[in-house]
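Sharing a chain and its predicted structure for anyone who wants a worked example. Both blocks are below, sequence first, tokens second.
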Amino acid sequence: MASVFSGLDPAAYSPHALHDSERMWPETNCYIDLWIEVLASLKLPPEAMLGFTMNQDFEGDQFTFFKVPLEDLETLYGIRCTELAIYDKVQNHVAEQIGRGRLCLVEMDSFFMPDTQGVGYRREHGKTTVAINRMDMEKRELDYFHNGGFFRLSGEDFDGLFQLHLTAEDLPFLPYTEFAKFPDKAPAEKAIRDTARQLLTHHFRRRAAANPIRAFAAVFPAQVAEVAERPFGFFHKYAFNTLRQLGANFELAGSHLDWLSADFSKAAAEARRISEVAKSVQFQLARAVTRKKFEPLQTALDPAADAWDSMMGLLEDKL
């Protein structure tokens, strides 16, 4: 059975160090997490792509859901990723592209994904992106990258994921799908490192005009007061799209700066400080929602906001 990366076994797979369980945020968001593992499977450094973390902003109701720009993937690694049109059954398109050595990234329902056990699996429908390495239609089996790992599902989960129960009278299953074309020869590590430095400068120039953490802090207690009036499950959605995106983004920013050069060590430390504060405040958020006491949240983010200012100042001196 064809696969994009031959020899990968979910049972023996070891995630990249960026997904180490000792990190503050071992998983970030589905899109970045799968690219970390895909690049590692290609023997390429995923740390190189993370300059875009400089661009994160507060969008009023959430922090930017950070994603690597597709043009960065091509500039750094020679990987061309673009939308795949879905006009037939999704599995037919996926099989065609796997046969051509191309990786399909498909938005699917985590309800049918066993690796989300205890969170979404068979409990809640949710949109997430997977990268499909191998598919066996006869065995109804799938090997896929998702979040911080590489997994296998089969049987009823396979049927549910591809919506095989649908009839001609039902609305078609048309998920957003991308596919990645890999170069015949990857760039050398020095070329990747030089390009990553250039991209960091590019993204730094496009950073938020005003401190996004201070903008969030100004509305944070009022938002949490509204969250506290919702069912408790809503807390997890709010935390994921605010504090987790903030903390995970800047932990990755710190890893990028460490990988790039020792010259950025002080800025990397400030990035990790932002991540640490976001992690701590997430625990405070849970207590505030439970107790409905929001006053302590008014200054909880101040150390992270100060660290953002310091980090950007340090990078301005270097870049």
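Comments welcome. The beta strands are 80-83, 103-109, 127-136, 141-146, 149-154, 177-181.
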